[in-house]
Structure formats: C-alpha cells, structure tokens
Amino acid sequence: MLSRHRAWSAWAVTGTAVVLLASSALAARPAATLPTEIPPAERARLQEVAEGASVSARASSEPFVARRDVFEFLLDHPELATHVTRALRLARYRIWRGAGGLWLDDGWGVVGRFSVVYAASGTRVVYARGHYQSAFLPSIHGQAVVVIEYGVDPTGNHRSLISPAVTGFVKLDSSFFAFAGRVAGSVATAKAEKEAKRFVKIVARASRAIDESPAHVHEQLRQRPDAPQGDLEEFRQLLRLP
User: d(Cα 155, Cα 63) in Å, to the nearest integer?
Assistant: First the structure.
C-alpha cells in the first residue's frame, strides 16, 4: 500500500474521500449507486467518478452506542470534529476551512479539498479531490466519492445503536496507479476492511468520551484557539452545558 498508516476519526467520514486517495488499491467492486435525491447534474458528475473508479471498496463494522444528535452534529461539522479527535488524541489529521471550502491533511502525505454534497437521515455523500505525496513516489492525484450509511436503533436514555457502513470510489488521474489498484486483489480488500474497523473504533471512543464527560471535552475544545467558535457554541448548547 502507498500509505502505512490511516488516522480516521469519529467524523472523519466527511474527509474519508481524501484519505482514500492514499490507498493504491481497494479491489472489491461495490455497486456505484448514489441517492436519487441528489440534483441530476451533480449526481451525474459523481456517478462518473464512481463508475470509472480505479479502486473501490465497501466495509462495515461493529455498531456502537452514542447520542444520535451529537454524532450527526459532528458528522456535519467536520472542522470542529477534527478538534475533538485531536484534543482526545485519537487522530492526528486536521480539517480547516480555506479557499474553496473544506481542506484535509491526514498528516501522512494526503492533502485535498472535500465537500459533503448530500446529507439526509442515515446517509452522507462526500466528494473530494486531492493528492498523496511520498518521498519515494511521484505525487498521486485523484478524485473520490464516498457514501456513508448508518442505521440508527434507539436504545433508551436518548442513546442509539449506530451501525455504519462506508463505500468508497477513487478515480486516480494516473493510468499506471489505476492499473496497480485493480491488480492488488484480496490484500487491498482486507486493508479496506481494517481501516473501516479502525474508523468505527475511533468513533466509539470519541462518542464515549463525550458521553461520559461532556464538560471536560468541551473545555478541551474551548482551550484550542483555532477551534471554530460558532460551531463550538452550537456544540455547547447541544451538550446542554452552562
């Protein structure tokens, strides 16, 4: 694989598209079906990437218990989410708002711009364009579409059992690396599943930390000078903190 490490966070799912660009191969070929509610022109653009993907994979993992409203808030506020995971020392990547929208740097060579192009109950669709830079390889550029789906089953006490699945489609600009992606076989599929499980594990850890000590997590965020203040205030209200 081109990258030796992937640091995914509870809500990195909105940046997953960029991170996937660092994988040279995800050999499984899931169906490239996108929500019909996406506006036709945008859906056609995303469908072209998905159907022409150099590499693709789908993976799910163990469900976890969390407050659905907190989970979805951070899913839809990735810039703040990256501060949560960094404050809790769960991941090293960062997301910030810059020219043209949201940007992600995973700390291991992947940098790119992404956007959440569709958000509905139980589904998010992300589009990204970015590149992976290694000291030993030329820069690898590409586009990605990631579909995040999650089931929600209430468990009581304002908590839910959340069951996530991630489907990623990566279209590399280089025909050489695209070919390499297609021939990697079962090793790549196993890697994709491993990374999805790692993502869910961080999701669960971050969710538990917020659930067990919301005031402590909020205070850690408040001490980060570059945390987005508007999102932080909304988060405080969501946690019902004074």
Answer: 12
